[in-house]
Amino acid sequence: MLWKVSGQDLEPVNSTTFTDLKWKEQSLEDWIERKPEILGEPLLIIGRQVQVSGVENRLDLLALDRAGNLVVIEVKRDTVDVPVDFQALRYTAAIANWSYETIKNQAEGYYRNKTPDIEPHFKEMIDQFFEEEDVDLNEDQRIVIVGRNIHERLVAVANWLLNHNVNVKVVEVSLFVDAKSVFAVPNVILPKESIEPPDVTDGDAPWKSDGKKWHLQERCSLQTAQIMQTLADKIPALVTVDSISWNQKSYVAFRVHGRNWLSIETRPQLLVVSFFVKPDSFKTDEIAKLLGIVTFDHDKTLADKLDTPSSVDIEHQENRDFVLLRVKPDLNLDSEGFAEFVRRAHKSNPS
Questions:
Q1: How far, in Å, CA of 184 to CA of 174, rounded?
Q2: pLDDT > 90: what percent of the chain?
Q3: Global pTM?
Q4: Architecture in CATH for domain 2-195
Q5: Residue 20 — pLDDT band, cuts 50, 70, 90?
Q6: What is the pLDDT of residues 153-164, one digit of tens each?
Q7: Same CATH fold assignment for domains 2-195 and 206-347
Q8: Of 88, 263, 270, 304, which is least packed with CB atoms within 10 Å of its CB?
Q9: Measuring CA to CA, how many Å separate 65 from each of 37, 69, 118, 246, 284?
C-alpha cells in the first residue's frame, strides 16, 4: 500500500495496472531506457529490441553494468511467469561470447538511431560511465527480469539460478494512481541480503583447499586457464623456483629464496604477470621488442586499454622494480625471446 501525506493525515493511494491504464509493455521499457536506475543500480543502456543470433524474438533492453558485464533486461507489463526467465537465458547465452568490437558496434548503432544528428563514440560513453579504469567488458553476463506482478514460480526458479551462480535480478514495479498522478514504485525481489552467500572464512575458502582448481576453473576463462597452465609448466622448466603457491585468492605466486619472485593475477580476459627485479634492470621498450608486444599506455582511453594486446609496463620502487606483463593469447610463450626474458628476470631477482 502507498500512502499520500495530506496535512496531518495519510490518504491511501490506489494500486492499478498497465492494463487498467491502457498502457503497453513499451511504457515500462521507455521508463527503464530513460532512467535505468529504476532497477536499483547504475546501468548504461546500449540496445533496445536487440536481435541476437540464434534467438527468434528480440531482446527488450541490453545494458552494461559498472563491472563491465552485459545485462539482459526482460520487461513485462503485468504478470511475469516462468517462461520469461528461460527466454532471458537464451539471450544471455547468445551474447556470452560477444567481443569488445561487437559490443562497440551494438552501442554505437543504438545511439546513432536515437540521435542521428550526433555521431556516437563508444570510447567516450564507457569512459564517462565506468568508475574503475581497468574494466574488462563481458567477463560475465547478468539477467534482470522486470514486471508488475512477479509470479512466485518465477521467484523460485530465479532463486535456484542464483544459488547456482547465475546472476539474476528480479524487480517488481507496482503502479499507484490518484486524481492527478501515476506513481511507479520499484521493489527488488531478488537477490535479497538474506539469500546472498555469506562471507567466506579462511577455513571455507576454496582457494585454500584446492587453489589450482580455484584459479583455473573459477578465476580464469578456458582461454586464460590454458595460458596459466602453460606458464606454470614452462617457467620452472626455464629457471629454478622453490615452489608455486596456488592458495591465494586472486594470484598465483612463484617463490624463489623463500620469497615471491613472480605473481600472476588470474582473470578471465588476461593474466597480469608481475616479475620482481632489481631497480633499472629493464626498460619497457627493450622488453616489448624482445617479446614482440606493445608498451602499456596509461594515457589511453579506457576503451583503447581494453582493446590493447599483450603489453608491458614497469613500476619503479625504491628497492625493486615490478615488470608487469598483461598477457593475452597473442603472446608467444614458446619464443626464445620469452625464455631469455624469464632467465634475465630470474637473475635480477632482488631477494
A1: 6
A2: 43
A3: 0.55
A4: 3-Layer(aba) Sandwich (3.40)
A5: confident
A6: 777 787 888 877
A7: no
A8: 304
A9: 11, 6, 24, 30, 34
CA pair distance 61, 72, nearest whole angstrom: 6
Identify which of 146, 149, 345 has the alpha carbon closest to the alpha carbon of residue 262.
345
Name the residue with cell 516462468.
Answer: 82
Looking at domain 206-347, its CATH class is alpha beta
Domain ranges of the chain: 2-195, 206-347
